[in-house]
Amino acid sequence: xxxxxxxxxxxxxxxxxLHCEGVSSxxxxxxxxxxxxxxxxxxxxxxxxxxxSCGDDCVDLTPADLPVAGAAAGAAPPSGAAENNETRVxxxxxxxxxxxxxxxxxxxxxxxxxxxxxxxxNFIQICSFYCxxxxxxxxxxxxxxxxxxxxxxxxxxxxxxxxxKVNWPAWCVRKCHAGDGGAACECDLLPMGxxxxx
Length: 198
Hints:
- By secondary structure, this protein is mostly helical.
- The protein has a domain at 30-64 and 92-166.
- Helix content is 34%, strand content 6%.
- It has seven helices and four strands.
- Residues 1-25 form the signal peptide.
- Keywords: Signal.
């Protein structure tokens, strides 16, 4: 009983010291609960980067209006979009998402049958990748501070082609114009008040 009390007191003293030093408790444990994992899956699936590893209902969240590659007006921004905005696809994430049974339909993942590779994704790896490579916090992930001290993932990602059936850059132009690039697109948009209409 005395040993247990001493351990509890030592733990309390340690946590108090961390708090006094300004260390966030989030830095101690990059973790992902089931509800947080669900939020991450919802964001990935609704951005066109989900898969069966997030569950069968991911298909229902996948956007149905993805532009088809090679379409004549595929990459044209919607009318009224500012021409000086920069939009980039986040295709460096594909390698890691594919390894986790995710990335559909935007990533061109090897292998044919996604259901055969159904497993629980490594959400800490996914959150870390987005934070370390894009400084982007997926819904459901801890703040990027929690992953800054984690070991760096290799910055040398293979540059993957986007799925030839989907025009990923056109998708990003459309999503960024709507103000929601999500997990798939990095948007550098002017504040809404600065966009001038023609």
